[in-house]
Amino acid sequence: xxxxxxxxxDRLLLSRPQYQExxxxxxxxxxxxxxxxxxxxxxxxxxxxxxxxxxxxxxxxGFGQWTVYEKATGQIVGLCxxxxxxxxxxxxxxxxxxxxxxxxxxxxxxxxQTCLTQGFEQLGLERxxxxxxxxxxxxxxxxxxxxxxxxxxxxxxxxWQSIYELTRxxxxx
Length: 173
Known about the structure:
With about 170 residues, the chain is an alpha+beta fold. The protein is built from 4 helices and 8 strands; from the N terminus they run E-E-H-H-E-E-E-H-E-H-E-E. The strands form 2 sheets. It has a 5-stranded antiparallel sheet with strand order 1-2-3-4-5, sandwiched between helices. The longest helix is centred in the first third of the chain and has 18 residues, at about 45-60.
């Protein structure tokens, strides 16, 4: 497998998370708006574990969630990428978290589309999932905008979760 450590779009640079980004990335788990549908703000100990997990996934799988930068400002806008669905064992999941200042600008769509392309074209995946809380209508709309279809719903983490799927066959750039 050819491991890529950077991806680029017209407006975004996606790079493998680095230690010096931990403070900015950790802010995602401390932000009440970002965490509204993700179990709420977490402790510093959990933030540290999540940051370690990002690196461990990359080291073990050769891919993972990317630090997403806005090219125009050089600012970290969030995380987006593929990872093993560690909580369900369902396969490979696309996850995304962005700072609220960057919501509604098409950044999540642009980053997620790039990650799907990587998954199908570079990693050779057959399917990619999005697992999101049904109440998070923006996340559900993003999954649908990406061409995913809802295949299941589950009661987990005290809320209904929607499971969306996109197969290689249905993927189009």
